[in-house]
C-alpha cells in the first residue's frame, strides 16, 4: 500500500497524516517517560513504540513522527527519557544517547518497510522483522557511543548487553501487537 503523504495529496489525507504523525510523536514521548523495572537495567517502552509505529503507520509516516519527536527534543522540549533531569535540547542529543536517537529513525522506517512488504501478517515473519528493526537502533547508537567515549572502552557492555533481553521482549510484544492489528484491521 503506497503512502501518498506528499504535496499533491488530498487535504483530508494530509490532515490524517498530520494527526498520525503528531500522535506518533506523542506516543514516543509518553513511552520515553515510562520506566519498567527490568534486569539488568530499567527499560523504557520507546523501542516498542517505534516498532508499533513503523508496523502501523508505514515507513513515511513513522519516519515523520520520529523526525517530529527529534525536532521537539532538539528545540528543548523534555520529550526524551531522563529529560529534563539529564539536560534538554541539542546538548542532550549530543551526549551518549545521541546515536541511539538517530537509530530511532532507522528502526521505525525499517519496521514500516517490513509491514509494507507484508511481514506483519504472521507472527513467524513479524518476530524477525521486529528484532531486525529493534537492532537498527543499536548500530548508530554504538558507533556514536564509541566515537564519543572511545572505542577502547567497553562500548558493548555499556550500550548493548544490558538492553538485549529487554529489546527482545519489546520486539516480541510489538510483533504480536502488529499481527493482531493486521488481523483486525478493516479490509
UniProtKB/TrEMBL annotation:
Membrane protein topology class: Multi-pass membrane protein
Chief location category: membrane
Keywords in alphabetical order: Cell membrane, Membrane, Transmembrane, Transmembrane helix, Transport
Transmembrane regions listed in the UniProt entry: 18-36, 48-70, 90-114, 126-149, 155-181
Protein's cellular compartments: Cell membrane
Molecular function per GO: biotin transmembrane transporter activity
GO cellular component, one term: plasma membrane
Name this polypeptide is given: Biotin transporter
Organism of this sequence: Stappia taiwanensis
Amino acid at each position: 500500500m503506497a503512502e501518498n503523504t506528499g504535496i499533491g495529496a488530498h487535504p483530508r489525507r494530509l490532515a490524517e497524516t498530520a494527526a498520525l504523525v503528531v500522535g506518533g510523536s506523542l506516543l514516543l514521548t509518553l513511552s520515553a517517560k515510562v520506566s519498567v523495572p527490568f534486569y539488568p537495567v530499567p527499560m523504557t517502552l520507546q523501542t516498542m513504540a517505534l516498532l508499533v509505529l513503523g508496523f502501523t503507520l508505514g515507513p513515511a509516516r513513522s519516519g515523520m513522527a520520529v523526525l517530529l519527536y527529534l525536532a521537539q527534543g532538539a528545540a528543548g522540549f523534555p520529550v526524551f527519557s531522563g529529560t529534563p533531569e539529564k539536560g534538554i535540547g541539542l546538548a542532550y542529543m549530543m551526549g551518549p544517547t545521541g546515536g541511539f536517537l538517530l537509530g530511532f529513525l532507522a528502526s521505525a522506517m525499517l519496521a514500516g518497510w517490513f509491514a509494507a512488504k507484508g511481514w506483519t501478517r504472521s507472527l513467524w515473519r513479524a518476530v524477525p522483522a521486529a528484532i531486525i528493526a529493534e537492532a537498527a537502533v543499536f548500530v548508530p547508537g554504538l558507533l556514536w557511543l564509541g566515537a564519543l567515549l572511545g572505542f577502547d572502552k567497553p562500548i558493548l557492555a555499556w550500550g548493548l548487553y544490558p538492553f538485549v533481553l529487554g529489546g527482545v521482549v519489546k520486539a516480541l510484544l510489538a510483533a504480536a501487537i502488529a499481527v493482531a492489528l493486521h488481523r483486525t484491521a478493516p479490509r
